[in-house]
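Bug #77: duplicate submission created two jobs. Keeping one. Sequence:
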Amino acid sequence: MPLGNPMNDGPYYIEGGEIQNVEITINVKNLEESREFYKDALGLEEEKPGRFKIPNTNCILKLKENDTQDVEITFITDSVFTLHRKLMDENVKIVEKPARNKEGNVEAVFTDPDKNRFRILEVTQQAD
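Kept job's structure:
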């Protein structure tokens, strides 16, 4: 007898909600200096100012000018609500429930066991 998909065996399984891309935002003190570093030293191709596609991946590196030196990791999905439900079923700590952001996209925030924050994003509005 073939084995079924274990995710289908749960009471709340809904299709969708898979992570499709990853976006890493790095806060930098000097945006122009950092852009040059990532272009010249690392050889990344800049898609638009401060936004780099990491070769051979579905990963984007974004630079944001800010005095805090933290990193934000965003998982991009086709359905924040479905992924949110899956995370809740796994008892993942949700710190911000799904909601529309100022750009009109849907996002939520969860933490891992070490309280690292991760954003999940469903892009429903295209940027200008």
